[in-house]
Structure formats: structure tokens, C-alpha cells
Target: S9 family peptidase
Amino acid sequence: MASTSLIPRKLLFGNPNAHGAELSPDGTWLTWLAPVDGVLNIWIAPTDDPRTAEPLTRTKGRPITWQDWTKDGRFVLFTNDENGDENHHVFVVDPKTRELRDLTPIPGVNAQIEMWSRQVPGKIVVGLNDRDPRWHDLYIIDLGTGARELLWLNTQEFAGIGLDWQMRPRYARSTAPDGGTRFWRIEGQEVHHWMDVGHIDGWLTWPLLFHSDNRRLLMKTCVGRDTAAFAWIDWESGEETVVAEHPRFDIQSAMVDPITYDVEATSVMGARSEWIGATPAVEADLALLQRTLPGFEINVSSRSDDNRKWVVTAYKAEQALTSYLYDRDTGAITELFRARPDLDAYRLAPMQMIETKSRDGLDLFSYLTLPASVQGERPEKPLPMVLLVHGGPWGRDFYSYRGDHQWLANRGYAVLSVNYRGSTGFGKSFVAASEKQHAAKMHDDLIDMVNWAIGEGIADPAKIAIHGGSYGGYASFVGATFTPDVFCCSVPVVGITNLQTLLESMPPYWAGFAEFMYRSYGDPRTEEGRALLAERSPIHKVDRITKPMLIFHGANDVRCKVAESDTIVAAMQAKGIPVTYVVYPDEGHGFYKPGNRIAYIAMAEAFFAQHLGGAFEPFGDDLADSSHEIRAGAEIFDLAEQA
Model:
């Protein structure tokens, strides 16, 4: 019988055993990510015998987080940076010789893979911002030799350039003065205005990919509708043919044929994900998978070129990701590997989907996890609770296995995640309701759900913490300064304290995104905008902080710079307000090295135990393999006693 005892942090947050499987185009080989000497690397094996797997790479330092085959099956691609600064390089490795090469060996440059295509084998298109850090020029790189040829000099200052499968630039986008999006058509070297999409529609409207005939473009669009649909746009006539739409939720993703790129199925994500609009053949496949794996969320993550072999991933709240090989000819579904099999020894907690109303009538979808020992949907008495706030803010929480939910629930807390206004997936009106509502109605949504949890007898009003990263870090700072009586403590991670400095210090290659950010948050170029940004910035309300705070940041963060946390810590210290501050000198916008991640979780857990009263796993050696620097308030951890 599965145990409800304390789950070791390393089982929840250490390296997964294996995940991210990709099929070679001919379906004969599999690659995936798994540890080599504690660092996630690429492994390879014959598809029919995964047990003979060997490492394809043996990189040190930062983990590899993504990999895929080139369309001709000759190489495997991946990207990585050195220290979290997002200056990614593009790497290629030969599966036969194991030779690893850096295709973009240029220091201080952000490289982006833009295209790899079976119609132009042996080459990829990469965007590089070495000429001007604000804008990416496009280059064709020969995978065999590494030779680089200029494809498009981006003197027009486009935020993005789209290509067809012949690697020809066909469209581009830039930001309109009102914060919306301006699209352009490219014909050879000539650029013509295509269409303007307003600020509200721009949140959910963008091109996805061309059909293999290079004459039709698949777009996600909410123009003329509230929820985003998928539609084919005839490139010559402009005629739009809707492929899939939903009256309440945005279309989330599409399964497309690996050769023709015909749409075979689409999905939406309401409270849970749902496949819709499938072709008869794929509908039968999905039905078989769902019958075989009842209760699981199912995704098709990779397919062979002949579309006969699929890699299928499945998960649910109580079970981490499992990868399967599905043979469409035989109907065989073979387990490849599980991301965290050691968790089988423990009883994980289910996740509840909650639908409520905000104070001004918006539909709020939230996710609640209670300790696994709780019988039913409500605890016998109110529990300490952690409000986990997602980043973005243009992202969302969804039903899934979540290590953070399982960790905190296992320690005795109720865990609540809220899709506040601005979260995506619920239509453009829901996103539009967030405009300039940071630390205002967006925060009201969080408070409304905290009050709901109190009213339902779930949360002890005296023991509620707020925690999150990026925008969730900002929300945690807001919780400590705008609503200090609601939360007994806060844990911001790579968060924002000053909206003006955030907007003035964005990465240079976000230049094409600037007008959108100004429209969404407030314009730092105007007196009115600066006043609004100051009003909504926690840095200007430090004297309201009355509850304990634990702050984490990566020194190399280029999105929310470490100065965001430095300044509020200095202001708190100047006013004699206690604070604990932890910085990782080799991380950026998040903590990716396993040792750093485990140490962050361990310190946060100790902090929650002190202020919420839940269970705590002693540090043991969980801080040993970490670069963290405790720059203020180290005494709260009592490291000598906890070690």
C-alpha cells in the first residue's frame, strides 16, 4: 500500500529518470533526456529495444531541456546557455559518430532556431542578434559544415519573421503604436503591409505554420470572435477556413500530419484538456489510447514520418509523466519509461478543479490539492494554505501532475492555484480584463479565491502563504505590500518589485514587444504611465510589509533582473524590516541545475514550516550541491542545527 509519509524532496524535484522522447523521422531510433553524472543529457536507442540505450551527449553544467531530430534524420539538435543569461547556442550531434558541434559559437548572442524542414534537408534557419542586440537576422546554416549564409537582414526591425518549408521568408510581425500587432507579407525581397490586429486581438492571434504546399497558412486567431480558433488562410486569396473553434475556450493545440501538415485533431483546455475535431482515423486512435489509459491526460509528442509510430505521453495529478510507444498498425501500446517511478511508493494527492466567479462576475478556474490523507473534497478543519501564483502573466494553470502541489500537500498544506484574469485559454475578453490591472483586479482575483477557500473551511485565515515565480513573484511581493493582512508570509522567486525598471531594462531583443508591454502595464515614457507604474509597484510600499518574507533570485536573470530583489531587500533593511534573501550566481530566470533547485525547495520548505506549521524534511545534504548565497537573514535557517 502506498505510504502517506514524507516524500523526499529529491524524488519530487530532482532529475527525472527520463522524459522528452523523440522519434527519428524513419521511426527506427528514439532519443530522450535522462541524467548523465547528474546532468540531463540526450540518450539514444533503437525504437524496438530501448533497454540498450546509451548517452548521445555528455555535457556538464546546465541541463539540456529540449532536443529533436533534423528532418533528414542525420543529426539531433539542442540549444543551451551557460549560466541562465538566455544567450543560447545551437548545437548539433551526429548519432553515428557522437560528434558534438556548436553551430553558433558567438559569445553574448541569443540564437533562436527558426526552421528545419524536410523540403530543404541538411540545413536549418537560425536567428542571431549579433549585428544589433534588439533584432534577429536570419541565417541558413549547413548542418554538415557549419557554414552560415545570410538569409534576411532584419533592418526593418521585425519582432518575428515566418518562413515556409522552402525556407523562404513569407511574413513578419511588428508592434503597432497602440500595442497591437502589425503583420507584413514578404514577396522575395519586397515587404507589403498585410493586416493590423488590435491590442486585444493580438494577444491570441498569430501564424503557426504553412501547409506542405506552402500555399496555405495555419493561424490561431480571435479576430471577430472571443475565443481563439484555428483556421487555414489561403495565401493568394486571403480566404479563411476555420478548422476548429470552441464557444468557451481557446483552441490550445493541433496534431498535424508529419508530411502534409493537414490538421488531424485539435485540443482545448477548460478545467481539463479535451481532444476535438479529429479525423475518423485519429479519433479511433485517441479513443483507444483513452480506453487503455483511463483518467490520464494524453498527448502525442512525436511521430514518425509515415505516421505509423507515435510517442504518447500520459499523466494525471497522482502520477507523473509516463511515455509510451504506440504502434498504429498493431494497436500495441508499450511503456517506454516513467519520469518519476520512485514516487510509486507514496500516496499522491488528487487535484480538484474549481469554477467560481470573481467579485465582478468573471469565471475563475482554479486547482486545489489537499493532503492525500484528507477524505473527500474538504478537510475536517481548516488547513494552512499556500497560494501558488503562476507566471506570465499570460500563461495559465491546468490540471496535471505538479511536483509543487504534491510537495506542499504532502507537508500538510492546502495548495491553491488560480487562473486570474490575464491567464490564457479562456478567450480574449478574459485577457483584456487584465489590462493595467496589475496589483489591482488581477490581485483581487487571487484574494477572492483566498476568501473562497476560507469560506469553504479549507484554509485557516491566520496561516496563508503566497508563493510564485516571475509574475507569481511579483504577485507575492504585491501580497506582502498591498494586502499584508491576508498572508502570514510570502516567498517571491525571480519577481518584480518596480514595474518601471522592469519595462526600462527588458532584454534588448524584446524591443519588438515593448509597445505591447507598455499598453499592458503602463507607459514609462509618459508622466501618467510612470505614475501608474509607481502606484502598482511593491518597492514604493515597503513600509507596509509586516510579515516574514523569503526572496529568491538568479543573478543572471535578463527578464526580471536581480536588481528587482536587491532594491527591495535594501529598502527593507534600511527600515529595519526582517528579510531573508537568497541569490544563485549561476542561474537566471528560474533554477535549472538540480542542486540549486533542491536547495531552493529545502529552504522554502523550512520557511513554510516555521510560519505555517507543516512538516519539514531536515536539510541533510540538500544544500551541499548548490551555489546559493544567503545575502540576508541566514539565521532563520539555523543551518548548523538543520544540517
